[in-house]
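This part of the workshop introduces the protein records we will be handling. To make this concrete, we reproduce a full record directly below:
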Amino acid sequence: MNRIFLTAALAAMMTINAPLLAADEREPAPPLAIKRWVLGEPVRVVGQASDNIYVIAFWATWAKPSTESLLTLAGIQREFKESNVRVIAISDESLEQVEAFVKNYPEFSKLNLRIAVDNDSNTTIAYMKAAGRQPLPHVFVINKEGILAWQGHPLEAQAVIEKIIDGSYKIRRPGEPPEPEHADPELVKKIEEAQDAEKWTTALDLSNELLAKFPDTVEVGETLTLKFTILYTHLEDYTAAEDFAREVIKTHPDKPGALNNIAWALMTGGNAEDLDHRWPELAHLAAKLAYGVTEGGSPAIVDTYARSLYLLGHVDEAVKHQRAAVVTMGRFLNRMSADEENKVEEKVLQEIKDELRNLETTLKYYEDVARMRDAFKPGEEGR
């Protein structure tokens, strides 16, 4: 099943909103290796100075979040057309698949998007390996200097583009001190020491201090998860844990990792035998938010969302989403296995395979429940 904490290697590969790597080095954007431009005028060069800002989006016809993101990308193209923003959506699938998709959805031809097919995955590998292999869809923004300025989810791109246009978006140059991105390492170390010593009240106090002093760092999601886990699992303060879960849902709807972890815990219970302190309805609220932020692009989050649907009695919906989680994880595994240039350790591949098997086992369970339900339904004669 879903894990609250994946191993560091696997979590890093599947994380959401990972920090941009290339922009800190001010590297020029990799060239595009396009097999065919399916829609729109071809773009020849993106890694050199020009009058244009390029938005390079990677998507796939098989991933519903990807296809839905084309509407978001079309909105970006429409919004910033007069500012010389050019949106390019690239798929590394076969030419036949992409052309068939565009043919089946003629409305996309009216969106002023450039849709292209990658040449032997060369463009995908060049960009996505710098991003730490993010789930699809994933976007890169290239400024007018031809530099990779930002990468992330399409829903977050508009605010970045606005700052690039008005000149307020800053890329670190070599030798410049980094922007504050991490919390005080000494405070983080104290929290880790308190955890190791199982001094949970101390760890809770330090977590509160970290959240108060550093509300916008990359550790926020992890700290939210930690605080909830301390309250729910270690201190068994269920009232405080429930209140905090509601607070996270209200104040941090953009932290899918924390929302997912809290939702999973609320459904599975801090104490395996304690059935009185599981809140599937509250878990569903958190899981649905996490699912919405990631647009179904994270198998672990889809798995959690499917479980919340199942526990609320929506078995058919649970089957549908669990099947999507299996497909997405399978695609992710295939992509990792095929990446010869950036070889993945066998141990990490095995972890991904284990997660895939867990997802498949859960899917089979949901399907069996659905079959049993249907078998006992009265027939037309009222059996």
In short: The domain at 20-166 is CATH 3.40.30.10 (Glutaredoxin). The beta strands are 34-39, 53-58, 85-91, 114-118, 138-142, 148-152. The radius of gyration is 22 Å.
